[in-house]
Amino acid sequence: MLPRAAQALRTTMSSPAVATRIAKLSTDAKVRGLTVLTTFLFLSSPPFSSRSRPKQLPAITAWGNRMSTFRLRGGMDGEAKISGGDDVVVAVVAPSDSVALKTMPDIKGVTFLVGNDMKRFKEYNLLPKTQAVLFVPPGDPSVLSNLWTEVKGTAFWVHSFFAGVDGLAGFIKAHLMDSSVPLTNGRGAFSSSLAEYAMTTILHYNKQVPRIQDNTKNKIWDKFVMDVVKGKTIGLLGLGDINKHTARLARAFGMKIIALRRSPKKGTEGVVDKVYGYEDRLKLLAESDYVVSALPGTPETTNFCGEKEFSAMKKTAVFINIGRGVTVDEKALCTALNSEEIRGAALDVFWTEPLPKTSPLWDCKNVLITAHNADLTVDYAQLGWKVWEENLRAFQEERMPVTIVDKTAGY
Length: 411
Description:
The protein has 411 residues and is of the alpha/beta class. The strands form four sheets. Strands 2-3-8-7-9-10-11 form a seven-stranded mixed beta sheet. The longest helix is centred in the last third of the chain and has 17 residues. 42% of the residues are buried.
């Protein structure tokens, strides 16, 4: 049950049957005192049985575009509580074959309404009771605006399963920018795997793995001098959760760590040796042996790495992008690679995905290309749900959401 305040909803549950299959999951979960009801929209079934209607559910006040004091609004009777039969209704925008749906958590007191178009969502009698919206890529982001029109009177929270919210920019600008409704994201869920990818690609070039593979294939005993990463400089573009994880791994290898951040006054946070502001990015690039970009996709970072940035890098340097594809001028990168202006690149994100076969990146010299799957681990979906649950518990316990997004900054 929620600890204290909650606003009473004056609407009641509609009576017509819902043409969906309802799966009741009774196993206890981390959130105590609640009942679980997971709804799968894409399956048809017998009519929905009646349940206790939601009486008093959470709402939020005093929330601006940036982080501010968080509190739940008091219930109409001053001490509102949710009994075990009342559910928090969450509208999940996701295709029916989404991997995330296969690991949807068993949480007592939560009803998930899953769909990827408004026709689906309107089949739910519980839709008017929606209190939270969850977007799971590759769900259709265009559905969000129409969905929000239906639920904005009751919804108090929107969450993006991914850390990046640039794909939701239109929805955020139109519906959330001037709203007190907070937006959270999957920040931190996939940082560890992305940091591993960054270090793997660094070692790939440092240890000359292609040369080793060729020598093995052609039975060549090539006793070349093996390089080391210890003492090398890694330049991090962005110092969010992903690059903080990368910094910790780099530290274990004995690397010097410098970072670029939008607000250099925030300092090193104990994870890097030195920080630069955006205006000094050429200095950072000139010093770095390996550059790892984990920049968010915003108007400020579009084509952030272009001709002058690659020209500033060492000829022996390697560029790695695990952030957003739009932050890189791909034409300029191709030129830098083919002219051997830089040593190599490793790319997991692109302007257009899937990367078209006609893209010149495929034919560039010394480039590693992965299909935006550097973080697609076996526990990928579970990690994403874990972050969502942490935010849910924060709301229920009247705490600040864990991964709040600055709507103005875009991350």
